[in-house]
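Duplicate of #3305? Posting structure anyway:
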């Protein structure tokens, strides 16, 4: 079994198409720095790593996660059960659309590392046959439906945090504005100082405010991490 060991928990990932990666760990460490959420929703849980990171960061939080893929759902549920915080974590097997149509509560923090490749741009008819790629395509949860669900479930004073490709940021924020969600905090992420920005970490809220923008570089050189990145993830990675 493929086990990824963090400082305070372990994550099995052998049954998940999407393995633990930098995007999810960054989001789990970066999100919601200025408030303490007490009820959290993780959309598209995958292995459950983001939920587990948030359970570590916020000891009083109740966490719900929703996952469409059956294997990933079962694995996330097992990872929750094996965690030190299993009594306050629960995973639902459903599409997000099914979930938000049934749920009548709201959340202080909603978080998602959503599928983000636009399948309409792919010419290879066989591309969608690969499970790993399918998990990263946005057919199952387009930005429009993701943000509509967030609009339905986010508390008036809540925060929605996500990570998306930098080149889709403007499109994403345009859709968010339609649902009265405004950017409060954006961090642009690149691998090295000389590489292009690849990811946008974004927090949205219902109330407009001055946008806090920043940049984050992950590595100085291969496996030589910047001080900013190390400070962000040091409570989680074993070797940080």
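Output from current build:
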């Amino acid at each position: 079994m493929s086990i990824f060991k963090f400082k305070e928990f372990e994550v099995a990932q052998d049954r998940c198409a999407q393995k633990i990666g930098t995007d999810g760990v960054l989001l789990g460490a970066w999100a919601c720095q200025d408030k303490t959420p007490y009820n959290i929703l993780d959309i598209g849980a995958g292995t459950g790593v983001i939920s587990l990171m948030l359970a570590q960061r916020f000891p009083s939080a109740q966490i719900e996660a929703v996952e469409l893929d059956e294997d990933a759902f079962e694995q996330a549920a097992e990872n929750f059960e094996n965690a030190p915080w299993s009594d306050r974590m629960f995973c639902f097997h459903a599409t997000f659309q099914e979930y938000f149509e049934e749920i009548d509560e709201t959340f202080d923090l909603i978080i998602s590392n959503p599928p983000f490749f636009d399948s309409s741009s792919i010419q290879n008819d066989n591309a969608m046959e690969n499970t790993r790629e399918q998990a990263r395509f946005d057919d199952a949860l387009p930005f429009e439906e993701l943000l509509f669900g967030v609009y339905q479930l986010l508390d008036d004073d809540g925060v929605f945090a996500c990570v998306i490709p930098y080149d889709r940021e403007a499109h994403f924020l345009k859709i968010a504005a339609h649902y009265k969600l405004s950017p409060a905090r954006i961090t642009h992420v690149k691998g090295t100082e000389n590489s292009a920005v690849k990811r946008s970490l974004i927090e949205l809220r219902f109330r407009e405010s001055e946008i806090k923008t920043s940049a984050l570089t992950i590595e100085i050189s291969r496996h030589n991490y910047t001080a900013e990145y190390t400070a962000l993830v040091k409570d989680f990675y074993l070797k940080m």
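Confirmed duplicate; merging threads. The chain has a mean pLDDT of 90. The chain has one domain: 3-233.
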